[in-house]
Specification:
By secondary structure, the chain is an alpha+beta fold. It has helices spanning 9-21, 45-70, 95-104, 107-122, 129-134; strands at 2-6, 26-31, 34-39, 77-82, 88-93. The protein has a 3-stranded antiparallel β-sheet with strand order 1-3-2. Strands 4-5 form a two-stranded antiparallel ribbon.
């Protein structure tokens, strides 16, 4: 069995949902403060790669949440934004706000959302939104 360890139930539950989507049976258990998800070792390589990518992403999100919660001396967290001219800038965000956002969306989704806003600011389209949506 392959074991995947989580430290919050939201990440574990999202992982289990992904396993269900990939049609991979799993078992869950709690070992003290750890939430463990186990899968059979006989999973094919393609699905195992997808599982590992999901696990790595969820662990990164857990780490970001943990750091935001455990660092009360920090007054801001940063979101990296790629500008059209190739520059990278960071926008300061309250850790509590970032924490709430990451409870609802993944880091990748938040990044895409921020990039859409940055693009709209750098390339303003003053037409009514319904026209913009129709032309996409």
């Amino acid at each position: 069995m392959f074991d995947y360890v989580f430290f919050n139930s939201r990440s574990r539950d999202r992982f289990v949902i992904e396993l269900e989507r990939l049609n991979v049976p799993c078992q869950t258990r709690t070992d003290e403060a750890e939430l463990v998800v186990s899968i059979d070792e006989e999973v094919d390589d393609a699905r195992l790669d997808a599982i590992d990518e999901t696990y790595d992403r969820l662990l990164s999100e857990e780490q970001a949440l943990f750091e935001a919660e455990e660092a009360p001396e920090m007054h801001a967290a940063g979101i990296t934004i790629q500008l059209r001219d190739g520059r990278t800038v960071q926008a300061a965000v309250e850790p509590a706000l970032l924490n709430r956002l990451l409870e609802a969306v993944s880091i990748e989704e938040l990044g895409r959302f921020v990039q859409i806003i940055a693009s709209a600011v750098e390339n303003p389209d003053e037409r009514p939104f319904c026209q913009q949506a129709r032309d996409r």
